[in-house]
Design goal:
Blueprint lengths: L4 H14 L2 H18 L11 H11 L4 H14 L3 H5 L3 H8 L6 H17 L7 H4 L7 H12 L8 H11 L11 H10 L5 H14 L18 H4 L6
Helix pairs in contact: 2-12, 3-4, 3-9, 6-7, 10-11, 10-12
The structure holds iron/sulfur cluster.
């Protein structure tokens, strides 16, 4: 994403104002502690196989994780390798993914598998820029894969993450969070230096369980003491 000089300066000022070092450190510590007891367990979180993680990312796009579990398990049993996926008739894949909706994803997933086979010798590419060239792979998916499959320190931003950052740090992103440069920058700045994959999962799960969209559980939240949303009285929960 390219910014003008003025925009970059404004962005830095906003983030510097909101990200005091101690507050940032405290934010990380509270969430990391929360994750120890609350991180959810899904089958795709038990693997480091880039192919399996790629499949999971596609299936999870705009779909609730609990609905994905049985389909993911069947999918991996039937197509355990990228080669098996790339060489299967598309109708079979579409039938298997049918219960999840978004029927275009079967074709995109198989196209991605075929491209990986021809262009990268069957190995999922490790660079964000290369992943972004695959059909059905956007910035979120590419960075999530870089972190989970290849251990790279790349943070992700989705509506859950955006909501937490906006509320806790008092940021105000644009209407389309996934295209907001300031929020992407904020997401990367708040991430720790190590184990960013786990950090990404922590924010996703925290946004789904505590800092929810309509009724955030502020009264039970470990972040409430320093949360701008809570301390400024916007709290409802
Ligand atoms: S106190 Fe409320 S708004 Fe703030 S992070 Fe926690 S749940 Fe979200």
């Amino acid at each position: 994403m390219v910014y003008s000089n003025n925009y970059t300066l404004t962005l830095r000022m906003v983030l510097m104002k909101n990200f005091d070092r101690e507050k940032l450190q405290w934010f990380r510590q509270q969430l990391q502690k929360w994750a120890e007891a609350n991180l959810r367990d899904f089958p795709w979180r038990q693997t480091s196989d880039p192919y399996a993680l790629l499949v999971a990312e596609f299936l999870l796009q705009q779909t609730e994780a609990t609905r994905v579990v049985p389909v993911y398990q069947q999918f991996m049993e039937r197509y355990p390798t990228l080669e098996s996926l790339a060489s299967t008739p598309l109708e079979e894949i579409s039938d298997l993914l049918y219960p999840l909706g978004f029927h275009f994803r079967a074709a995109r997933l198989q196209q991605a598998a075929k491209l990986i086979r021809t262009r990268y010798g069957g190995r999922v590419p490790e660079k964000e820029a290369e992943l972004l060239k695959l059909p059905g792979v956007g910035k979120y998916t590419a960075r999530s894969l870089c972190a989970s499959a290849f251990g790279q320190p790349l943070a992700v931003l989705d509506t859950n993450v955006a909501r937490i950052l906006e509320r806790f740090f008092g940021l105000q992103g644009g209407r389309v969070k996934s295209r907001d440069g300031m929020l992407w920058d904020a997401a990367q700045r708040v991430a720790p230096q190590t184990d960013v994959s786990r950090w990404n999962l922590t924010l996703l799960d925290f946004g789904a369980a505590v800092c929810t969209a309509s009724h955030p559980r502020c009264r039970d939240c470990p972040l409430q003491q320093q949360c701008e949303y809570f301390t400024k009285g916007s709290v409802l929960g």
